[in-house]
Write a structure and sequence with these properties.
Lipocalin, 8-stranded antiparallel β-barrel, mainly beta, 120 residues
């Protein structure tokens, strides 16, 4: 009888627990591609978000893998990111991630693809 009572108590405890949905914690840090079309293959600009600064790179042939910090255009913008809001030089955007964090969509319609992702 004690075992049955313990079992019922344990079942009631586990059933009454609410489970929090697990939401991924994606980061904006890293290198992201921008395309003037909706096609990633047309990307001609790369943004690098690192340590609170956004740097810009341009490519005529779409080859971004070999670019390093010496290829940045002069200047940078500051940014802050809190999970769903990105503020770049004082201008705020709501952002959502898709494709396991490999694509980010801005509230103004801008779309970026993470350089290391296979997202389309």
């Amino acid at each position: 009888m004690k075992k049955l009572l313990f079992f019922l108590l344990a079942v009631t405890t586990f059933i009454s627990c609410e489970k929090e949905p697990i939401t991924p914690d994606y980061s904006i840090e890293g290198k992201w591609l921008w395309s003037p079309s909706q096609n990633r293959a047309d990307a001609n600009t790369m943004y690098e978000f690192t340590n609170g600064f956004r740097y810009t790179y341009y490519s005529l042939d779409g080859n971004f893998d070999s670019l390093d910090s010496t290829d940045r255009i002069p200047g940078s913008e500051t940014y802050t990111f809190d999970g769903d809001s990105l503020v770049i030089d004082g201008i705020g955007f709501k952002v959502t991630f898709e494709c396991d964090g490999g694509k980010v969509l801005f509230s103004n319609g801008t779309k970026l693809w993470k350089l290391t992702s296979n997202c389309q």
